[in-house]
Structure formats: structure tokens, C-alpha cells
Amino acid sequence: QIFNQHNAEAPNLEPAFQRMAQMEPNLDHDVSWFLLPSYWAKMVVALISFLCFANSYDGDFVFDDSEAIINNKDLRAETPLGDLWYHDFWGSKLSSNTSHKSYRPLTVLTFRINYLFAGGFYPVGFHVINIILHCTISVLMVDVFSILLGGLQFSNKGRRLNLAPKSSLLAALLFAVHPVHTECVAGIVGRADLLCALFFLLSFLGYCKAFKENKEGHTFSVFWVLVSVVLGAIAMLCKEQGITILGLNAVFDALVINKINLLELIRKLLYKDKSLENTGLLRKGLLFRVALLMCGGAGILYIRWRIMGTGPPAFTEVDNPASFADSLFVRAINYNYYYSLNAWLLLCPWWLCFDWSMGCIPLIKSVSDWRIIALAALWFCLIGLICQALCSEDSHKRRILTLGLGFLIIPFLPASNLFFRVGFVVAERVIYLPSIGYCILFTYGFSLLSKQAKKKKILAVAVLGILLINVLRCALRSSQWRSEEQLFRSALSVCPLNAKVHYNVGKNLADKGNQSAAIKYYREAVRLNPKYVHAMNNLGNILKERNELHEAEELLSLAVQIQPDFAAAWMNLGIVQNSLRRFEEAEQSYWTAIKHRKKYPDCYYNLGRLYADLNRHIDALNAWRNATVLKPEHSLAWNNMIILLDNTGNLAQAEAVGREALELIPNDHSLMFSLANVLGKSQKYKESEALFLKAIKANPNAASYHGNLAVLYHRWGNLDLAKKHYEVSLKLDPMAPGTKENYNLLRRKLEQLQKKGG
Hints:
By secondary structure, the chain is mainly alpha-helical. The chain has a domain at 37-308. The protein has 33 helices and no strands. The protein has helices at residues 13-23, 38-53, 65-70, 105-118, 123-150, 165-176, 182-186, 191-209, 222-238, 244-257, 262-270, 286-308, 328-347, 372-391, 395-409, 435-452, 456-480, 484-494, 499-511, 515-528, 533-545, 549-562, 567-579, 583-596, 601-613, 617-630, 635-647, 651-664, 669-681, 685-698, 703-716, 719-732, 739-757. The radius of gyration is 34 Å and the shape is elongated.
């Protein structure tokens, strides 16, 4: 019972509710499906949802995981916890022009906890949490669907009744095994969607608790309404879509608690009918509860706006080309086509891709484009469902269809481009929540078919087949998300026109050292998108390493021409110009890179190398010092400072720099080696020997380490040890410069000593 029988102020509410509940048909009556006790139903859903994604538990960090986790300083203990509230999801300041304004501090906090408990970037723990979250959400879906499909009623003891156990189990299974959820579960960055969904559902269930019978005799609990608002705020702090639960709670209140007939209400509002108060709109509590939800939502959005700032996120045309179209018609047509693609992914989740941007979906620019059919089909179905939801005489049908459409459409609104530009074309992760609405509509459609079908078992077997196919598809897709190579290659057949897909395949190959294959994919990425500056930059880098300098210069010059503030391309162009011995142009390119990226230690390092080549030693040392100030662990810059000071005879300064470097990077064997050389020349043989041995222990196969230690022993007079390390050095590298000559000198000296001794 939702309302207290003894409440004298509202004697008509509970009987009215009960009568309507009795008049409504039971959805389960027509559904040919398994009937399980609630506990077992939840166990089955949990087990099957686990089986779908279990093989992703030991996957790598892939795609966006690198930026959101590995390169995100907010995960590290040295970053104050307070910074999480002023940074975006990727660790950038919200006030920065480059920020995507994705404000998800609670999700980042869970990443940080994962990192601290694991003691580093070990992906297993991150993946396990994601799988557990999806299983938990799927279990909660049993309760949510039982309310959405069967209505909200409580027993005399205050226990909520499940009036649609078979339908809620089927809908929860459909949700648990939907392949479109793979990105959220198998991709660690999908944690944002999972946490958002968890608190989204808890907010809804909390709102339902507001109507549970209480001892004070109130018809609803303000406390639980406020709890629902707080849980909605937490959902939004996990991902932006979470705020939409407040609107859905209001819709649920109007349709299920107050049984409002929307069409009748609209008619009475239009004709100013005096019986408006009998529609349920003005019943005690509804307007107050909606006001609480609206005030809570407005307050949450205001606080977020104050933290985030007023500046819109910076997206480029390749991220969302339709939003940059000049024509309102082109924008509207393409937005609607994107909606139809999202609907198709829910209906037939076979073609899945990690990224749908960069030409994957060419713009529709004319009504003669055959893809207009998809728009027509989408709106034909939506209008049909909306008409049934508004006009049907069956109140049960109206309620389920309206709730299904509400859960399908409202959580999708933040990704719809209607209120602000989003940074993607289609994203599977954003339909995690809207799939709730799809599962409601599917289950209701199945019940209608079951009612009409003569052979209900065949229909049930068909649905079981769909579930099984989805389980297998989830397992296959999860395996593709285990590594970047599999993930990127899986997209080639789905989005062959997507330049980013070819770019990512090329980058993955380049990281593995397969430069020849990487060049092929980078060239294809540039062909598909002639303005793809990142592909040009990476291709230019590989060509530079292969000494194809002129083509590398052409590509990098074009990249900075297209994007003048592309600091990395300017630096790489400087490296190529330096190799072509065009030193003035190289210096200018380096300084341009630094102008566009103030904190650019690698560029200062390369600038120092240029100055060293020009014998501008002071400038070189200053450039390398800047690199180490910006990045104290920049080993190459420290090493070059030590070597330059050593070569110019400044041994005391070289020693001081070497000791400073080793304090900051105590386990760097190359720094040990460089400082050991300086100490040897300063005749600090004992300390030099200790550093050489420590460097060799860290890197025993470095021929130069053994060779220089042999020289130290040679000078020191430890000839037997010198002979031993010369031989090790020559064994590791028979062509080591100077080592053979020194070894021959030592052998002659040892022979002379033997003759004298004889």
C-alpha cells in the first residue's frame, strides 16, 4: 500500500490507487517466460552478466585509457585530492581552453583508489571493478524493471511487491547481455557510465521508497525525495547524464503514482477545463515533489556551472562534423541520422566500433541521399509509439510505453547536440542508460506477440536465441577490447572510411617497431583526411628516422600550416631542419613550438642539441637546464649537460650536475655511467668504480660500461681487472671504438711486466 489507510486528510488516494491497479492487466499473464523467485532471478542475471564480460578482466589499458588513467596526474598520490574538483576527466584544469569540460571527479577518485591499492598502473584491478559494477547494475535492473513494468505497490508489511517477475527478469537479462555495453565494461574509461548508471538507478529506487507506508501517516517521505536528489547529484558527478534521473523521477511520479493521462491533461489545459483538479496534477504532494526535484536539479547545475566556468568545450570539425555545418537543414538531417544509428545499435548491435568520427559517417547533404530512409523509419516508429503512449485507451499500455520512451529518450538528451555541441558522432557508451528504455519496449512487444501467438514456446525459444547470440557477441567484443591491436583492427571492417581507425592501427604498429606497416596506415589516414595533422606528424617522424628527410619536412610543414599552434609538429620540423643542417630555420621552429607550449621540456632538450652542434655551449646548457626544471626526470638532458661539461674540461661543474641528477633519478644507469667517467678523470677512482659497477649491474650488456671501467682500472693500475672488463666489452661489441686499441696496449704492458718478472 502506497498511502496510509488512516490518513484522514487524503481518504480517497489509496483506494483509488488500488482500484486502478486491480483494473490494469498483468503483463506477466501473456509472457511465456521463466518464473523464478526474486533471489534466484538476481543470481541468474548476475551470473550471465559476469559471463558476458569475464574475459576482459586481464585486458590492457586501451584507447582513451592512456589519457584518462596512465597520463592523468590526478591519480597519483602527490596530486592533492582537492585538485580533482577543479580538473576535468582527463586531468586538465577546467579553466583551460583545451579542456573538454567533462566534469567527473567521483569517477577519477575511483581510478585513484584503484591505482593506490594496486600500487601502480596494473589494469586487472581496474577491469575487475568495471565487471563488478555492471553485474551490480544488472541485478538492480530486476527491481527497476519490476516497478516500470508491473507498477509500484507495497504489502501491508511495507514490502514492495514484484507484480511482473517474468517480464522484469527478461528485461534485466536483455540489459545484462546487450553487446553495446561492451565499451563501458571492457573499456576502463567506461567506468564513468557504469558509476553514473549505478547512482541513477539508486536515485530512482530511492524515489520509489518515498511512497512506502510510514508510521507518521504521511502519504510520502520528503526525506527519500531529497535522498533521490542527492543520489542524482552523485550520478552527475560520475558522468553528466546522471542529472536526467530527476526528470525521469518526475515523469514516473506523474504516470505511476498519480496516474495522469497526458492526452487528457493536455486537452483540459487547452480548453481550460474546470475539472482540471481531478486529473491528478493538483493532488496533494505532486507539485511539491516536482518542485523539490526542479530546485535540486537547478542547484546542482548552478554549482557545476560555477566550478566549470562559462566557456564551452573546444571540439574540432573532425570530432563532430555535422555540428560545424553552415546549413541548419544539414545539421538537423545529420543529427537525426545519428539518432537512427544509435537506435540501430540498440536493435542490431553487430557492427560496433571504438570510434565513429573522422569520416566514418559521411555527411548527408541532400534529400536524395538514400540514408534519409533511416530517418523516416526512425520517426515513423517513434511517432507510432508516441501516439500509442498518448492515445491508447489502455492505461497500462500508456504507462509502459511512456516510461519506455522516457527512459529511452531523456538520458540520451545530453548527447543529442540539441543543447550543446558534443565531441563525437556516435558513441556506444552514451546509450548504456537509454538501453533501459529499449529493454522496456522490447519486453512489452514480446508480451504483445505472446498474447497473439498460438505457439508461445517457439517465441520464447527465439528470445532465448537472441539472448544467447548477444552473450556470444559480448564475449567476442570483450576479447577485442583486451588489446589495442585487436580493438583497432576490428574497426577496419566497420568503419573503413574512418581516418582515426587507420591512424590508431598505424600508431600501434609503430609502437611495436613495425615502421613499414605503420607508414601504410598513416598514409591511408592522410589520404582519407588530408587535414589530419596528427597522422602527418607521426608519419613525418617515421620518415625522419628512416632518413627520408625531404618528405618528412613537407609533411610537417603542411601540418603546421594547417594547425599553426601544433607545438609537437613544430618541434619535429625543427629536428628535421637540424638534420638538413638548416640551423637558423630549426632554431626558429623550436622557439615557435615553445611559444605555443610554454612547458615543453623535450623541445628545450632538442634546442640544446642544436646549440651544442653550433658550439654555443652556454646556450646549450641553459636549454638543457630549462628541460630539467620543467621535467626533473629528463635523463637525456641531465646526461648531455654532464657530457658537455666533461668534454669542455669543467669537471667540477660536471660532477656537481651529475650528483644533482642522481639525487633526482637515483636508479638511472646512464647517469651513473656519465658521472663515473667524470670521477675517474678527477682521479676519484674508488667512487668511480662503485658507480661503474652499479651501472653494469643495472645494464650488464652495455659494452661501453665495461670498456670504460676497464680504462679506469688501467689508469688505476688494476691491470687484471682491466683485462677482464676489456675482454667482456669486446665480447659484447667486437667493434667498440678504442676498446681494442686499449686492450692491445694493456696486453703489451702485461707481456713486458711478465718479461721483467721472468
